[in-house]
Specification:
Helix content: 40-55%
Strand content: 15-25%
Largest sheet: 8 strands, mixed
Radius of gyration: 18 Å
Structural class: alpha/beta
Distance between the termini: 26 Å
Length: about 290
């Protein structure tokens, strides 16, 4: 699928004065005889909702699926005068779902999205939001940032001195090499697919905000007790779906989460890297729907 074909599947919604790209697979209201649960998805860094293009058709057979590009990502706005805090990204996600009339969900998050998710869970635990969460699905996210094996490019981008210059120098060959290196089977990361992902990163002068987006790694330390604490306190049934050969969000993170979260099931995808929904979509969907 091309980036343009993906864009044609969605629409833009105004959220707090910014344009947010949203895909909602619900064409009409589900019938009362056959109600469909809603699956909301929070994507990762530095990509977009496009990560799910291979799995969306299968997920949509079971769920009403709602995806959006976080502010600063994909086809959504990429303002330069914005903090890109994970807390604000949680505000945006909740407002998108509110506009779509969503009150009860299964919440799935990957990578960067897992930290947006933990902020939402923290609010949910304190009954600060009007959202019922039936199930939580966590996939390959470095919420335990102290265990994460950050790539050199990530460290340079999050640094307040080098980040701006690295983002200016970022080009497709550098991006391609770094993304391919987090796959287990690197043949699955084709040049064609990576170019479609890069096209969305560059959209709206996206290279100018990459270093700003990278500040989330610092926030994972700042709000560690709030966000890890939220997972330890939640009563939501949780499924941890983890690609075991992820070189960044390593298997030890999944094992620790499984030890901490009260009501969880840990499911592994062997011989797979950081983007399981792209590298091994069939197995990943099987575990999501299991």
């Amino acid at each position: 699928m091309t980036a343009q074909e993906w864009r044609n599947k969605g629409e833009f919604r105004t959220v707090f004065g910014k344009n947010i790209f949203v895909i909602d697979t619900s064409i009409s209201k589900p019938s009362e005889e056959n109600p469909r649960e809603t699956l909301v998805i929070l994507h990762g860094y530095p990509t977009s909702s496009f990560d799910y293009y291979k799995v969306l058709p299968e997920l949509a057979k079971t769920y009403r699926v709602i995806l959006h590009d976080h502010l600063g990502y994909g086809f959504s706005d990429k303002p330069l005068d914005y903090s890109y805090s994970l807390i604000e990204q949680a505000d945006v996600a909740l407002e998108v779902w509110k506009q779509l009339g969503v009150q009860k969900v299964t919440l799935l998050a990957h990578d960067y999205g897992t930290s947006v998710c933990t902020e939402i869970i923290a609010r949910h635990n304190r009954k600060q939001i009007n959202l019922e969460i039936d199930q939580l699905l966590l996939c390959n996210g470095s919420v335990h940032i102290e265990l994460s094996q950050l790539r050199t490019i990530q460290k340079l981008l999050k640094n307040k001195y080098t980040g701006k210059w690295v983002s200016k120098l970022m080009r497709f060959p550098i991006f391609k090499r770094n993304i391919r290196n987090v796959y287990f089977d690197k043949r699955q990361a084709t040049d064609e697919e990576l170019m479609e992902i890069w096209t969305q990163i560059e959209h709206n002068n996206g290279r100018k905000v990459i270093h700003l987006l990278s500040s989330y790694m610092v926030e994972r330390y700042t709000f560690w007790h709030r966000w890890i604490g939220a997972l330890k306190e939640t009563s939501i049934p949780t499924k941890i779906i983890w690609a075991k050969n992820d070189p960044v969000a390593v298997a030890a993170i999944a094992e620790l989460l499984s030890a901490e979260i009260p009501n969880n099931t840990l499911l592994w995808i062997n011989h797979c890297g950081h983007f399981p929904m792209l590298e091994n979509p069939k197995k990943w969907v099987e575990l999501v729907l299991k």
